[in-house]
Amino acid sequence: MIAPAIFWFRRDLRLADHPALSAAVAAGAPLIPLFILDTGEGGDWRLGGASRWWLHESLAALSRDLKRLGAPLTLRRGEAASELLRLVEETGASAVYWSRVYEPWAMARDARIETALRERGVAAHGFAGALLAEPGSIRNAEGRPFRVFTPFWRALTERLQPAPPLPAPKRLRAAPAPASDRLEDWRLQPKAPDWATGLRESWRPGEAAAQRRLDDFLADGIDAYDRLRDFPAEDGASRLSPYLHWGEISPLQIWRAASAAPEEGRRAFLRELGWREFCHHLLAAHPDMPDAPLDPAFARFPWASDERALAAWKKGETGYPLVDAAMRQLWRTGFMHNRLRMIAASFLVKHLLLPWREGERWFWDTLVDADLANNSGNWQWVAGCGADAAPYFRIFNPVLQGAKFDAEGAFVRRFVPELARLDAKYIHKPWAAPERALREAGVTLGETYPRPIVDHAAARQRALAAFATIRGRPPL
DNA sequence: TTTTGAGTTGTTCGA
DNA sequence: GTCGAACAACTCAAA
């Protein structure tokens, strides 16, 4: 009898275009598909609430798909290394297959596990599959990792030779199934209160849904992507990010599928995939990116401390309608439109001078696409302390951004219903509306909708002065 | 070797 | 109303 092999699913919850799974199937041993809810996972960066909801749904989908192939998914919970070794012990498995996860804590964990397996004579097979290029493989002429996006992306795309797609296995040869936890017992989904209503309305996790989303986007969205993606009410985004995070779809699948699309839309869209790559490569090169500014000058930045302002930002009660609509979209749907992420993040960091890590933490808990590399890389970018960062003087004006990208206020009306009847002229600055316009729209400032918690012009000046303190020149 | 120009997403001010 | 300049410091690649 052939010893079974364990297939350890982690951040690769799919069956198609799956190098590790295809290799495991090709090796011929009966398989034990496994997922471990790693209670040691990520140190301070344990799964956020929205991620836990997504993971539950995604595991349920994967579980159904695997059952159909004849090899049910085994669920275990605990510290990953000990759970895995326990299962090896129980089943007499002679090999473990997985796809690499590139977060620093996961790389360290997997290295320990690999050693422990080898010591027991068990083969450990790690595969790529989550990125277009392995971190560390893209370097500049001096052999160093890039710190600027454009040359990084040029180097990666020039080098990239997309492998042909790997079909999903039609059938899996299963080993006798070991005991499994029940998914429901993991309590990944909120019960009291059940705040996931908006998530359920907005998302269908799982590989099949990921493929449908991609097909829909290619049929309907990518042509106009470069034109529409900046308008939050237009829904021009691909919304593939949470699927990518959990590996329900691979970046290579997206790359290949997009290659038939018209030039402009394709380029703009694939660049976004490029930023995902860039952030992952950055995190691998700078393991403390989630916790410490890449630019050391920011260690002495005079961040403010203001619990009330932070709470207002989180709840979407800053008095700036576009910021508030963005934050409420996040809270309700687990998602925020890309442009709004910049505006809302800029508001926290520049208007309120609150530490970017506070925003990083909140997004981590509330985004269904929460991803350590993307989240930390982008927060640092907005704050100006990251790689290829936004210039210090780029301080989004929520009123101007609203006029440009939500001219009729359609997006604000959707998520800030108390302003729904306000004239478009004032929808992004209700404080400037005449008494009569407010009354007719049923708005009472300070009661039905807050007054601005900071004045834009004053906040802007304060931010510029704060940024000047960490540079050579004294403020004027 | 040194120099030069460009680099995701912006705003304000003054002419 | 429109338009260009100014607003760091640094990285990278090409000249």
| String of helices and strands | EHEHEHEHEHHHHHHHHHHHHHHHH
Percentage of residues assigned to helices: 40-55%
Give the helix tally. Answer: 20
Indicate the radius of gyration in whole angstroms.
Answer: 24 Å
CATH class of the largest domain: Mainly Alpha
Low-confidence stretches: none
Structural class: mainly alpha
What is the general shape?
Answer: globular
Quick overview of this protein structure:
By secondary structure, the chain is mainly alpha-helical.
Give the key terms.
single chain; 476 residues; mainly alpha; Rossmann fold; Serine Threonine Protein Phosphatase 5, Tetratricopeptide repeat; DNA Cyclobutane Dipyrimidine Photolyase, subunit A, domain 3; five-stranded parallel β-sheet; 20 helices; 5 strands; DNA-binding
Write the layout of secondary structure elements.
Layout: E1 5-9, H1 19-27, E2 31-38, H2 49-68, E3 74-78, H3 80-91, E4 95-99, H4 104-119, E5 123-127, H5 149-159, H6 197-202, H7 207-220, H8 225-228, H9 241-245, H10 251-258, H11 263-285, H12 307-315, H13 321-333, H14 338-351, H15 356-366, H16 372-383, H17 398-405, H18 410-415, H19 435-441, H20 456-469
Parallel strand pairs: 1-2, 1-4, 2-3, 4-5
Helix pairs in contact: 3-4, 11-16, 13-14, 15-16
This protein binds a DNA duplex (15 and 15 nucleotides) through helix 5, helix 11, helix 14 and helix 20.
